[in-house]
Specification:
The protein is an all-alpha fold. 71% of the residues lie in helices and 0% in strands. It has one helix and no strands. The longest helix has 62 residues.
Length: 87
């Protein structure tokens, strides 16, 4: 690939250290495996945090909704006592 007509070898700009293609493919494969492992780790962390925070978030919204319902019920009962609302 890097042979010249005069017999001298021209350095290969793509593989400056003369690395073989199989070694380069091996490095690419290693990079791909590392990339996949990082993605899997991130996915597991996301799932774990959603399970942990999901229940807390659900509970917080449930408490807020319950408080709003209680307040609405109280407001309705006060309005009915005053005769402002006919239910």
């Amino acid at each position: 690939m890097g042979n010249r007509c005069d017999g001298s070898e021209k350095p290969d700009p793509i593989h400056p250290k003369g690395e073989s293609m199989s070694r380069l493919k091996s490095n690419r494969g290693q990079g791909l495996v590392e990339y996949v492992l990082v993605l899997v780790l991130m996915a597991l962390l996301a799932i774990g945090s959603l399970k942990f925070l999901g229940q807390k978030t659900h509970n917080a919204f449930a408490q807020a909704g319950q408080a709003l319902n209680t307040q609405m019920d109280y407001s309705k009962s006060m309005a009915q006592e005053k005769g402002e609302v006919g239910d």
